[in-house]
Amino acid sequence: MANSSIETRDISELIKETDNVYESVVIISKRSRQISTKVKEELSNKLAEFATSVDNLEEIFENREQIEISKFYERMPKPTLLATEEFLEDKVYYQREGETIESSEEEDDLGII
Fold first, then answer.
1. DSSP 62-94
2. What pLDDT shows up at residue 104?
3. How many angstroms separate the CA atoms of 51 and 53, rounded?
4. Which burial class, exposed, middle or buried, applies to 39 when counting CB atoms under 10 A from its CB (0-12, 13-18, 19+)?
5. Quick check: helix, strand or coil at residue 112?
6. Per-domain boundaries in the chain
7. Quick count: other Cβ atoms within 10 Å of Cβ 69?
8. What is the pTM (predicted TM-score) of this model?
């Protein structure tokens, strides 16, 4: 898991792969949205288990497990930080518009941008 503290990034590291800082930022932002969507779905699924048809105030304050799950997701590194780490470690697959895929590698968990 990525370090959640603020870290200065070297621009030359970001443009090493694409030769364009803006293109790198777009790739990172798209990957960040993918991560954010995935995490949001996971959290929603976990919290759906606690949904009740009758909301009573005592049940809301007594559900410690639900609170712990929420706190866990709050402490996770932000999706932009995770996406930046993945990009710098060459774990993000991207394709420029108009390019064709030459290999038939299977799509991994990181996804295609």
1. H-HHHHHHHHHHHHSPPHHHHHHHHHHTT--B-
2. 41
3. 7
4. middle
5. strand
6. 11-88
7. 17
8. 0.73
